[in-house]
């Protein structure tokens, strides 16, 4: 095995009250990885994906967001479930200091029995970030395949075609453009440019498809 590309860590994570739920253990796994991974010690960012899931467009969505927001130094990209006060914890992409200084720098208060889930913990961590952080969802939907650890249900998301991607990127940029107009002019100009390009591409695809 090439240990310059792959690192395997073993964690005994079954020594807590099972009533706290799998989210409690998931947080402790992340904490263990941050403390023991030699890769993470030198990393600037990290992508978290829940076990038994494959995000088929992971490289596409993370690269798009990172470039769209002008390669920020401090950031967290995760899809917010606004009505539930949660963030989708299946997959998020963040600068390493989000994990070390904010996400893990607080006690593990997750308790499934009391309705306090991993997603709530993630939500609170993000909402308490300083304004220096770029916070946003993903410009494109995550294409997730695999099995849910909570329900056992199967994820079988479908890839968007080129027209659908252009439409989604334009709609995303229209929303984010308004949000960043008064906050960060550099990001605002980049998003406005990408929005215009997505609109042109969509128009061309509609015409020639």
Task: Kindly describe this structure.
With 209 residues, the chain is an alpha+beta fold. Strand 4 (80-81) and strand 5 form a beta hairpin. It is built from 7 helices and 9 strands. It is globular and about 60 Å long. It is 44% helix and 14% strand. It folds into 2 domains: 1-158, no CATH class; 160-209. The strands form 3 sheets. The chain has a 4-stranded mixed β-sheet with strand order 1-6-3-7.
Layout of secondary structure:
Blueprint: H1 22-36, H2 38-41, E1 45-49, E2 53-55, H3 58-68, E3 75-77, E4 80-81, E5 86-87, E6 91-95, H4 96-103, H5 118-127, E7 134-136, E8 144-147, E9 154-156, H6 162-180, H7 185-208
Parallel strand pairs: 3-7
Antiparallel strand pairs: 1-6, 2-8, 3-6, 4-5, 8-9
Helix pairs in contact: 6-7
Quick recap:
The protein has 209 residues and is of the alpha+beta class. It has helices at 22-36, 38-41, 58-68, 96-103, 118-127, 162-180, 185-208, and strands at 45-49, 53-55, 75-77, 80-81, 86-87, 91-95, 134-136, 144-147, 154-156.
Name the structural class.
alpha+beta
Number of helices: 7
> Taking Cα atoms only, what radius of gyration do you get, to the nearest Å?
19 Å
Largest sheet report: 4 strands, mixed
User: Can you give the helix content as a percent range?
Assistant: 40-55%
Q: How do the SSEs run, as a string of H and E?
A: HHEEHEEEEHHEEEHH
Roughly what fraction of the amino acids lie in strands?
5-15%
Report the end-to-end length measured between terminal Cα atoms: 46 Å
Mean pLDDT level = 92
Strand arrangement in the largest pleated sheet: 1-6-3-7
Low-confidence stretches: none
Structural domains: how many: 2
User: Total number of β-strand segments?
Assistant: 9
Shape: globular
